[in-house]
Amino acid sequence: MKKLSLIALLSTVSLSAFAVEPCKPYMSVNAGYAWGFNGKSTYTTYGANFIKNSTKIYTTSFDKQPQGIITNINLGYGFNDAMRAEIGLDWNPKMKSTVNVFNLEVKEIGSHGTVAYDFNNNTAVTPFLFGSLGFVSAEATIKPSTNAESSMLSANAGIPPYYLYNTTDGNTTAASVSITSKKSATKTLMTYKVGMGLAMKAGQDIDLEVRYGLGGKTQSWTPITDLMVSTTAQGTAVTTADELSARSVVLKNMMEHSVTAGVRFTF
């Protein structure tokens, strides 16, 4: 009976070991999903389409907020039994959204620094809080949207399909050539995130972890300039009734929720 009690005690001590051993480095690999909220666009037009005032600045919410798979790899160090810090690499291959009359697929590559605090206790699960600052290099692939996705197209445009054109004045000619998509210039955006997580001991120097984060980007971004969506195919001059043009579309107030799961290895 005493032997069984001793085994149980040793098992408890093993399971309740610190989530990260003090004064030891570790590495974690995580993947999950992010979904945006609060994103808005400020856009100007050429005044030659359904919006007649080319000097006015219009602001509207995204029809579809950004969402997609996110991944990161982190290298960290535990300073004591509670405080630790990480540096990480982020790769978000395709964050999809609908803005005005355009669909965006944004690829993000970046880095971040994180400070975390572990609430160690006498169980196999360790809760923690974290905060991060970093940056991403973002590039958007822009395509025409659809009636079902875009409220502007649903209210103002004709029957699909839609064609994407470059335009410098809000109009096209019969010689204009439509394009299937267009890539934006790359933009570096500062990021922030705060959140909480749970780490569970899975073996010697191995932990499983789940994180929830609330974050966003501190800057606005203008991925769309001089583009037009039309129901008129190339080879025909586009009339003002057929086009929905954008001089510029600025994305701002971009925030997101995220949930990731991963494995942490202590060395």
Describe this structure in words.
It is a single chain. The chain is mainly β. The protein has one domain (2-266): Porin, CATH 2.40.160. The chain is built from two helices and 14 strands. It has helices at residues 2-15, 151-156; strands at 24-37, 40-44, 58-61, 64-78, 83-99, 102-118, 125-144, 163-166, 182-183, 187-203, 206-217, 221-230, 243-252, 255-266. It has an eight-stranded antiparallel beta barrel. β5 and β6 (102-118) form a beta hairpin. The longest helix has 14 residues, at 2-15. The chain is elongated and about 70 Å long. The protein starts with a helix and ends with a strand. The model is unreliable at 1-17 (pLDDT under 50).
SSE order and pairing:
Blueprint: H1 2-15, E1 24-37, E2 40-44, E3 58-61, E4 64-78, E5 83-99, E6 102-118, E7 125-144, H2 151-156, E8 163-166, E9 182-183, E10 187-203, E11 206-217, E12 221-230, E13 243-252, E14 255-266
Antiparallel strand pairs: 1-4, 1-14, 2-3, 2-13, 4-5, 5-6, 6-7, 7-9, 7-10, 8-12, 10-11, 11-14, 12-13
Number of strands: 14
Order of helices and strands: HEEEEEEEHEEEEEEE
Placed side by side, the strands forming the largest sheet appear as 1-4-5-6-7-10-11-14
**What kind of sheet is the major sheet?**
8 strands, antiparallel, barrel
The level of helicity is under 10%
CATH architecture: Beta Barrel
Output mean pLDDT.
85
Keywords:
267 residues, mainly beta, eight-stranded antiparallel beta barrel, five-stranded antiparallel sheet, elongated, disordered N terminus
